Amino acid sequence: MRIGIEALPLFYHRTGIATYTHELVQNLRRLGEGDRVILFGRNQRMAGASYHDISYRERLANYFYKKYRLPGELLNRGIDIYHSPRDMGLPQPEQLPCPAVMTLHDIILVRMARDYYTPHRAYLYERRLLSRVRQADHVITASHFSREDTIDWSGIDPDRISVVHNGVSERFRPVTDDRERQRVRERYRLPRRYILCLGSTEPRKNVGTAIRAFQHLRRSRRDVSLVVTGTNYRRVAPPQAFAGLDMEGVHFTGYVGDRDMAAVYSMAAVLLFPSLYEGFGLPPLEAMACHTPVIAANSTSIPEVVGDAALLVDPRNAAEMAASLELVLESEDLRRDLVEKGVARAARFSWRRTAEETRRIYARVIATHDH
């Protein structure tokens, strides 16, 4: 099988879609099925947190590449199936010389459009996405929640959309080496004891509620800080995004590189994951693999992913969040229970299994397309 995969997400910082693309490609190549996995994309003059950082000129160049050059490249390389690992990676599928699969991780930009777009841009995005979803030969989602959400929104045939869970990279394991921990602590100026929260200023990550919960907690204990990782979403800095909130004890690290993230998880007293919407949500599982207890939102796909291995809270209730933080910080028995369950839970999700299940979808789509 000759598999073509869009390469653009690999130019981003290693956030969710970039991680998914990297792990899928590497694990497809390791399956030993004799496949060729070939990446397609024009040379990018960018690198950054997300597609939103690409200039308009670069986006236009990507559009023309997909529309006019990509079909010929796929034909010349004899590609049997083309896979876009992100929502807008496909050209119009009828332009392609082979069947096309897309991974739709979530429809956040539809469900929470007002947090990201003007009304006009939200309308244009939804219309374009709906066209891609309805025309793709098959759609992959990372959770049953996302599958049902997508069917409800798009009306596509349920037989044309499958769930393939994400995996947890083997690099996420407890970091116990004192020198490595000290290196990471100094690099990001991490406090001695901290609650970890990911997402920086992206609205759906709900860091503002985490900060309010932390300030509730600070009334009774001053021995812990709140560390927030991640790049500033669309260059909106924390003082602007969280204006009016008490920021005492809150530390923003900026982007944390792949090499350092396992240590950041391992040194955290607890991961707080209050996201309002996730199509899957890798950080809770990554933290669990690093033996860190997790408190997570009880919304969207998150309960499906974490099972009973995390404390679940209302992501809009700062007082409830603070009470759960207090419980985990105070009770050694609860921490031990969450860590044990978390290790077992994270072990259920592997990128090799993601690759195996995705490859089976490729084979099925090719066989159906040929008849």
How would you characterize this protein structure?
- The structure is a single chain.
- The chain folds into 2 domains: about 1-165 and about 350-370, Glycogen Phosphorylase B (Rossmann fold), CATH 3.40.50; about 180-345, Glycogen Phosphorylase B (Rossmann fold), CATH 3.40.50.2000.
- Helices cover about 45% and strands about 15% of the residues.
- The strands form 2 sheets. A 6-stranded parallel sheet has the order 2-1-3-4-5-6, with helices on both faces. It has a 6-stranded parallel sheet with strand order 9-8-7-10-11-12, sandwiched between helices.
- It has 14 helices and 12 strands.
- It has helices at about 15-30, 55-75, 110, 120-135, 145-155, 180-190, 205-220, 240, 260-265, 285-290, 300-305, 320-330, 330-345, 350-370; strands at about 1-5, 35-40, 80-85, 100-105, 140, 160-165, 195-200, 225-230, 250-255, 270-275, 295, 310-315.
The termini sit apart by 17 Å
The helix/strand order is: EHEHEEHHEHEHEHEHEHEHEHEHHH
| Structural classification | alpha/beta
- How many E-type strands? 12
CATH class of the largest domain: Alpha Beta
Strands in their spatial order, largest beta sheet: 2-1-3-4-5-6
What CATH calls the topology of the largest domain is Rossmann fold
Briefly summarize what is shown.
The chain is α/β, with parallel strands linked by helices and about 375 residues long.
Q: Layout of SSEs?
A:
Elements: E1 2-6, H1 16-30, E2 36-40, H2 56-76, E3 81-84, E4 100-103, H3 108-111, H4 119-135, E5 138-141, H5 144-154, E6 161-163, H6 178-188, E7 194-198, H7 207-218, E8 225-229, H8 238-241, E9 250-254, H9 258-267, E10 270-273, H10 283-289, E11 294-297, H11 302-306, E12 311-313, H12 318-330, H13 332-346, H14 351-369
Parallel strand pairs: 1-2, 1-3, 3-4, 4-5, 5-6, 7-8, 7-10, 8-9, 10-11, 11-12
